[in-house]
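In this supplementary section we document a worked example of the pipeline. Step one takes a protein sequence of length 232 as its only input; no multiple sequence alignment statistics are reported here. Step two produces a three-dimensional model, which step three serialises into structure tokens for compact storage. The input and output of this example are shown verbatim.
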Amino acid sequence: MKRTITWSFCLVLLLSLFVPGTVSAATKAETLATTQYKGLKNGMTMEQVAQVLYGKSYQQHLKKRNGSTVLKLSINFEGDEEGHKQLIHVLSDSTTTHPPTELVLQFMTKQKSTKYRLVTKALFIERKTKTGYRESTRTLVKGAVLQNGMTEKELDAKLTGKGLGNWTMLGHMDTASAYTLDEQKRGFADVFRVKEYVFKSTTNKWKHVELTYNEQAKIYKVSDIRTILTKN
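The serialised model returned by step three reads:
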């Protein structure tokens, strides 16, 4: 079951992949999606999620489906693993043909339960740039060498200014609310946090950097680095 849920998170990411370089960023959409992302907490019920997304009118955005309270949204994925039901929604900015922001939400139930709870949230932001991503306001310093395993502080030392600047993706998975305490002790629950940035180097190349959170050390560490090929 644990591996199944991990693969399910990968599916969340695949479902929400966007095609870079198609539209300009909508600042209001980015701000709204970011506010919603930060307001959503893993373990929330459908009703609590609806309140964050829609405010006082949240009840108008809920419905009953197969005995469960769910959002009135298109379902991008639905499954059932050993009695744990799953739903995935992808919320996009409806004002554009190719949305610059996508908020991905994954819900699960406990075994044979009808109550869905939020277990994964992910937010992607694209922009009409050479890379197609929302690029960081920070630039890699001359001669900077990046390596997997670097801490966020060590990465910051390789950049101009203080801090990592704008991110292009945030993700947080915590499936504890879908399992009993006994199941959690047996290792069924997963916790995973990730964030991604795009930095420009002094050689005019762009680096896509992924950082994942180390739950034991309580810090983010670089987990993947790749060079982005840009269009002329």
